[in-house]
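Deliverable D4.2, example record:
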Amino acid sequence: MFTRNTFKFLSELDTNNNRVWFTENKSRYEALVREPALDFIEAMAPSLKKFAPHFRADARKMGGSLMRVYRDTRFTHNKTLYKTNIGIQFRHELGKDVHAPGFYVHIENSECFFAVGCWHPEADVLWKIRNAVAQNPEQWFKARDDKKFSAHWMLDGDSLSRPPRGFAADHVAIADLKRKDFIALAALSKAEVTSPDFVKLTAQRFAASVPLMKFLCKALEVPY
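Output generated by the structure prediction step:
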C-alpha cells in the first residue's frame, strides 16, 4: 500500500505546490497516493463492519473516505493549491462532512496520527454531547478512562477558557464540558504507515476507541 515513495512524493509536492508541477506528476500522485489510499480504505471495510457497523469505508475516488487533494483557498491567507497530507475519514452513515462522528487517519511527512470523535461540531451537536456528559458523568468517565482506550488514545482539541453557558462551573466534569472538540488522538509513525500490518494496526487502534465513539453516538441519538 503506502511506501517510502508516498512520503517522497508528498515532500516534493510541498516544495512544488503549483498546478504545472502537479499536472506533470499526476500519474505519480495516482500511483503513490490515491491508489494506495483507496486500497487501504477497501481493506478496512471488513474490520469496520465488525466493531463499527454504522461507519463506512467508502473507496470512491471522489466523495468517499479519501479527502480531496485540492485545498479550499477561499477563506485563508494560505493560497497553496494542494494538500501535502493524506486524510482518510470513515464517517458515520448519517454524517455528511468532517464534523460528523468519525475515525480518521492522517499521513504527512511532519506528522502521522489516528483520530476519532467529533471535530469542530456544530453548535447543536456540541450541546448534545455536553449535555450527555453533564447528565451522565459516570458513563462519560467510564468511556474516557477505559483502559484499552487510554492505553493508546489521548483527548485533544480546543477548549473554552470559561464554563459554557448553561453548565455549572463546579460540575464534576467541567474540564470536559469546556471542550469545543470531542476528539482523541493516537500516535502513528511513518514505519507503521508503510508496514504490511498497517490495516491490522489501524483496526486495532480504532477498535480500542469504541467506548468513546459509542458514548458520542448515543449522545447524538444515532446508532453505533
